[in-house]
Amino acid sequence: MSKRILTILTKWFPEDMSRGLEVPRLTFLALWYLERIFHRGLFNAYDVKAIGAPEAAVRGFLLGLTLADKWLHDGARPIRNWQKYCNISLHAANLAEKTALMMLEYNICITQAEWYKWLLTLKPSASKFTSTSFGEITAVAALEVIIQRDAPDGPQGSCPSRDEDEDNNNKMCPRLLCALRDHLLG
After folding, report:
1. DSSP class of residue 138?
2. Separation in Å, CA 179 to CA 47, 88, 176
3. Cβ-count burial of 44 within 10 angstroms (0-12 exposed, 13-18 middle, 19+ buried)?
4. Residue 138 and residue 56: Cα distance in Å, rounded?
5. For residue 11, which of 84, 75, 90, 87 has the smallest C-alpha distance?
6. Distances from the Cα of 97 to the Cαs of 27, 37, 64, 94, 116, in angstroms?
7. Which of 21, 46, 79, 128 has its CA 20 to 30 A from that of 142?
8. Chain-centroid distance, C-alpha 157
9. Nearest Cα to Cα of residue 127 among 149, 145, 147, 142
10. What average pLDDT does the segment 40-44 reach?
11. pLDDT tens-digit readout, 143-177
12. Cα 68 from Cα 30, distance rounded (Å)
């Protein structure tokens, strides 16, 4: 499955592969969006059994990557690109993106302080990814450099405020969460 994710990253952002930390930054941000939407888990075991764990993971990752691309590049690759990497209809992919944006209340903004906190949260997990395929830096090395470069140096934030209570976030939209799972499993 990790080869599928790596293929997505190298083909989705071929022009960014030579820019050092752009792809790791996109990847870490994609994971942040997925954590915000699915902080109690992406799919349950029954869901994954229906389409297979690798396919479910790829679809979820593509959703996070699409949101990260929108935030960092003020636009994104067309959603039809998903079909190159997974077996999902264009209609289901569009509905998944729309539902995810509704769950986030169309607020895909991340403050510098939130970003830094997220990077620190990823540190313990990053050490598990040590592959240096394509001669690229490891996840640990990329994370360390990004943490150094992106450390907050004062109050930040031009983003709309968001409720930080995780339990409240889960209670806000169970219907949307079910709908999003259905679209991604579609």
Report:
1. P
2. 13, 15, 5
3. exposed
4. 25
5. 84
6. 17, 12, 9, 5, 25
7. 79
8. 21
9. 142
10. 63
11. 888 888 887 764 444 565 555 544 444 444 677 77
12. 5
Residue 140 burial class via C-beta count within 10 angstroms: exposed 0-12, middle 13-18, buried 19 and up = middle
In this predicted structure, the answer to whether residue 17 has a pLDDT above a threshold of 60 is no
AA identity, residue 85: Y
Residue 78 C-beta-side C-alpha neighbours within 13 Å: 6
Question: How many helices and strands in the chain, by DSSP H and E?
Answer: 9, 0
DSSP 154: S
Q: Amino acid letter at 105? A: E
CA dihedral 91, 93, 98, 103 (to 10 degrees): 140
Give CA–CA dist 121/107, Å, rounded: 21
Note the residue count of the chain. 186
pLDDT at 32 (0 to 100): 92
Give the model confidence (pLDDT) of 53-112 as tens digits.
777 788 888 899 889 988 887 766 778 878 888 888 889 889 988 988 988 889 999 988
* pLDDT computed for residue 158 by the predictor: 54
| Cα distance between residue 122 and residue 119, in whole Å | 5
